[in-house]
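hi! just following up on the protien thing from before. the input was this:
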Amino acid sequence: PLMPPPLPDHHATSLVEITRQGGILLVKPAGPSIGQREAPIIQEAVMPYVEEMGKSLDHVVMDLSGVTFMSSMGLGMCISLRNAAVAVKSDAILFGVCKELLGLLSMMKIEKLYKIAKDQRHLDKLIK
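and the predicted 3d structure came back as:
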């Protein structure tokens, strides 16, 4: 069977920006909210990267700096992406999470599934 062409190292749509750098996959949803419409589309854009990178994937970084609200679908997407990362022995990191969103993630116990980078320096430490 023909192999699909490799995914580009940078892919941006109106809902999400995906950047692959070495073993790091940076996922930056556009926000301000990730709801029923956005979550499956973002997830569908990210999954092929996780699959293509496979064991060479070291870190999945979700940059939520543009996001202020997530519906249950958005939270579900966070869990799915984290599970996909763990399946290839990669770690999942949340970055740029605002207070409100962090409160929501904590309430749903989702923050326990991720490492949370408080700022760029902390993130750099986590992905070294």
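The first helix runs from residue 38 to 53.
The chain has a mean pLDDT of 94.
cheers
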